[in-house]
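User: Before I run my own analysis I want an independent prediction to cross-check against. Here's the chain; please return only the structure tokens and, at the end, one sentence I can use as a sanity check.
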Amino acid sequence: QVQLVESGGGLVQAGYSTRLSCAASGRTFKVATMGWFRQAPGKEREFISAIKWSDRTTYYADSVKGRFTILGNNEKNTIYLQIDSLKPEDTAIYYCAAREVGHDDYDKWGQGTQVTVSS
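Assistant: Structure tokens:
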């Protein structure tokens, strides 16, 4: 099994930056891709960004390009999400997810970490 634990977030002022971390443990050799999703109050969970370990290809939702950066350290089985120029609409629970080799979907999830952006 793969376990994911997020950290970071909290209350941040608009315009500032924050960095979230997600550490994978367990059978990490099975993980092909790790990514970030978020769910704002009253909204559905949405994809933000992902990184594929095999070639370090990164993916971003159009809505976050330019302000969000995904970073990965596969020696530590850890990914990061750098969020710059935070906006109140970035307020959400941010989830880390993993897609295992041979799987089509993300099926391992962290518990989520709250990011609240004050105006």
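Sanity check: The longest strand covers residues 18-26.
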